[in-house]
Amino acid sequence: MKDNDPRMPYQLPFPKDALEEIVIPDAVPQDERLWVPQAENVWFRPLCLNRSQGYWMNLLKVRKAGVLSRHRHPQPVHGFVLKGRWHYLEHDWEATPGAYVYEPPGETHTLVVPEDVEEMITYFQVNGVMCYVDPWGEVLGYEDVFTKIELCRKHFTEVGLGEDYVERFIR
Q: What residue stretches are annotated with the ChrR-like cupin domain (predicted)?
């Protein structure tokens, strides 16, 4: 007879080809080396870099006021504000701590951190590519999961954690 105790863990093996979970107890780390520089006074903390499905999840940390970037998303983006606040020039709302933001495919916006914000940290899941554009939509550059992985490899090597440190975030 099978035991139906709800506290009994699953008793069968996981699928042979299933990937390991990612558990990051210090998602907002004290160790500054875990923040990867993206631009002056802008860093990201990788959480999941999914190269097989083309998305990434990270914390974005900004310690400067003003325009961060103007960009377009061909796929959806999800955000959750942990600290500070920000807004888009193209909308009349402001993202504050505890706010969830859904950005639909096709959205183009200009992210601004207000003058009185010392530090902003937001969790983002970005799917596909993020295209940096000028005000008329001309593409100036892009990011994808592969450019994020390369930034991590370079940074983690430079700070002594080693190129392979990024592997813990890749699926």
A: 29-120
